[in-house]
Design a protein that fits this description.
- With 127 residues, the chain is α+β, with helices and mostly antiparallel strands.
- The chain has a domain of 82 residues: Sandwich (Immunoglobulin-like), CATH 2.60.40.
- 20% of the residues lie in helices and 35% in strands.
- The chain is built from two helices and seven strands.
- A hairpin with a 6-residue loop joins strand 6 and strand 7.
- The longest helix is centred in the first third of the chain and has 19 residues.
- About 11% of the residues have low confidence.
């Protein structure tokens, strides 16, 4: 009786861990890289199938790669798609039927969408 209980408990734990696996999948990342137009944002992530649709800020993008995908976005595009001083991008991956979607907020590099301030002068005093 005890071995049956142990086997059932082990089977339940295995099933629970397999169901929780998609939640522990690799999160998408974003980093600033150089490209032909100057600077680009490289967004990388993982999807269940190679034909899954990738959206960034609710816009469909063409992702390179199979299950490990990547998208290069010129900085002008990132600025157009995001609000000023944005700190994240909304990345969603959905199957071809668009029934099951996984969305996440991807952190942008610090200060990426901040504004440049031209200083007339800067005063530094020693104490």
């Amino acid at each position: 009786m005890v071995t049956i209980f142990r086997r059932a408990t082990a089977g339940f734990a295995l099933a629970a861990s397999l169901l929780a696996a998609p939640a522990l999948a690799h999160p998408a990342t974003a980093q600033l890289v150089g490209c032909d137009t100057g600077s680009c944002l490289l967004v990388r992530g993982h999807r269940a199938t190679a034909d899954a649709v990738v959206r960034i800020n609710d816009r469909v993008v063409e992702a390179e790669g199979g299950r490990s995908w990547r998208v290069r976005l010129p900085m002008d595009t990132v600025k157009d798609w995001s609000g000023p001083f944005a700190r994240t991008l909304r990345v969603s991956v959905s199957g071809p039927s668009a029934t099951a979607a996984r969305a996440e907020a991807v952190r942008l590099p610090v200060g990426l969408l901040g504004h440049d301030v031209e200083l007339a002068y800067l005063v530094v005093r020693a104490r």
